[in-house]
Amino acid sequence: MAEAEILKAELAEFVCGANDVIELKLVRDVNDIFDDTKIFRPEFTHQLFGQNENIFGYKELKIQLYFSAGSLNPYLAKTSSAEVDGKKYDGVKPDDVLKTIVDQLEIQPMSSLDHFIAKLPEESSFQPSGELLDSYSLDSADGSSTHFEIYKCDIREQKFKDYHSKMQTFLWWYIDAASYIDVDDDRWTYYTIMEKYSQNGNKQYAFVGYATLYRYYAYPDKIRPRISQFLILPPFQRRGHGCRFLRSIYSDIQKDSQVLDITVEDPSEEFVRLRDFVDCQDCGRLEAYTKDKLKGSFSQDMEKEAQSKYKINKKQARRVFEILKWMNVNQCDEEEVRSYRLEVKQRLNIPFQKQKSDYEKLKKVLKPEELTATMEGTSLEERQKTLESWYQELSSEYSKVVEKLQNS
């Protein structure tokens, strides 16, 4: 083996996956610090450590980023069994991983574990900020109940502004292409969800997740709120919090007469599925979405009733219609399935129809070679392949929502 290959192999031993070595915790008491079952890990680290999500310079690296459960006071430390020796490898240095985290998250963490532990008793005095919108309980398998509260918060309160600066740090780990918002823009609205629990006879709180919403202007005298960030932390996922949280946000928005409809900014697949589920449950109770009417085509009545009752925009109302109709299609009836597929593809074909219209206009002003280049990729065969691919992707998404609706 050549010397360069030996060197490369040796240095590869100092590379580790960032997602695997970062330990996140919400700490309620000192026992949680030493309880590995409390660990949850990031989904994304590329915004801190590059597209490969690797950290260089350490063996058996462990990064501990712990937060007190309620107030979210952070503690940050790292350990490793070895660091790369710059003297041996031509001055190569390990990544300054702690500085990267501090700078990107814009936090001031404690570096002393003793100091972090000493601050934990102060959690008993922590109280959530904002207006209480909703509360609910979830029953556990052992018969106990866990209680949760949802708040609408005001960034003008310094207490919440400080708190927001800590809770938003979770975005880097769980939302792709995350960024911090401008808190000085008063068109933002903030919501938090907290667990309320008892410890040593005291009522205490643990952070569960949060959401932000931006109020866009809609001509002439309305607003169009857009849900921007929506996060439930991993320890609380798959327990129904997302639905309760979204419904509380919806309820708060829907009572505002200025609201035209609700949109969502660049949603993840999980949020799309959550939104579809909630909207389908709501629209399933409307007169315009009865089973008999679902047999027909999407109508203005469906659009208007979804908008007036639940502030659902036209695009989402059409999607809800297709999901509910798919739920009522007899999958054993080939003709019903075929008819549904053609109806959805007809909607999906609208961009191609627009292209055809554009073609007639462009033909008058472009040279033949320019027209060919402009309209490349719109042959009938390619169009059919694209439509089929889009349909298969949609039907897969719809089927997941239908399954959840049927099991709810």
Automatic annotation (TrEMBL):
<comment type="similarity">
    <text>Belongs to the HAT1 family.</text>
</comment>
<dbReference type="InterPro" id="IPR013523">
    <property type="entry name" value="Hist_AcTrfase_HAT1_C"/>
</dbReference>
<protein>
    <recommendedName>
        <fullName>Histone acetyltransferase type B catalytic subunit</fullName>
        <ecNumber>2.3.1.48</ecNumber>
    </recommendedName>
</protein>
<dbReference type="GO" id="GO:0000781">
    <property type="term" value="C:chromosome, telomeric region"/>
</dbReference>
<keyword id="KW-0012">Acyltransferase</keyword>
<keyword id="KW-0808">Transferase</keyword>
<feature type="binding site">
    <location>
        <begin position="230"/>
        <end position="232"/>
    </location>
    <ligand>
        <name>acetyl-CoA</name>
    </ligand>
</feature>
<dbReference type="Pfam" id="PF10394">
    <property type="entry name" value="Hat1_N"/>
</dbReference>
<dbReference type="GO" id="GO:0004402">
    <property type="term" value="F:histone acetyltransferase activity"/>
</dbReference>
<dbReference type="GO" id="GO:0042393">
    <property type="term" value="F:histone binding"/>
</dbReference>
<dbReference type="GO" id="GO:0005634">
    <property type="term" value="C:nucleus"/>
</dbReference>
<feature type="active site" description="Proton donor/acceptor">
    <location>
        <position position="265"/>
    </location>
</feature>
<feature type="domain" description="Histone acetyl transferase HAT1 N-terminal">
    <location>
        <begin position="15"/>
        <end position="176"/>
    </location>
</feature>
<dbReference type="InterPro" id="IPR016181">
    <property type="entry name" value="Acyl_CoA_acyltransferase"/>
</dbReference>
<dbReference type="InterPro" id="IPR048776">
    <property type="entry name" value="HAT1_C"/>
</dbReference>
<feature type="domain" description="Histone acetyltransferase type B catalytic subunit C-terminal">
    <location>
        <begin position="275"/>
        <end position="325"/>
    </location>
</feature>
<dbReference type="InterPro" id="IPR037113">
    <property type="entry name" value="Hat1_N_sf"/>
</dbReference>
<dbReference type="Pfam" id="PF21183">
    <property type="entry name" value="HAT1_C"/>
</dbReference>
<keyword id="KW-0539">Nucleus</keyword>
<feature type="site" description="Interaction with histone H4 N-terminus">
    <location>
        <position position="188"/>
    </location>
</feature>
<dbReference type="InterPro" id="IPR019467">
    <property type="entry name" value="Hat1_N"/>
</dbReference>
<dbReference type="GO" id="GO:0031509">
    <property type="term" value="P:subtelomeric heterochromatin formation"/>
</dbReference>
<dbReference type="InterPro" id="IPR017380">
    <property type="entry name" value="Hist_AcTrfase_B-typ_cat-su"/>
</dbReference>
<feature type="region of interest" description="Interaction with histone H4 N-terminus">
    <location>
        <begin position="214"/>
        <end position="216"/>
    </location>
</feature>
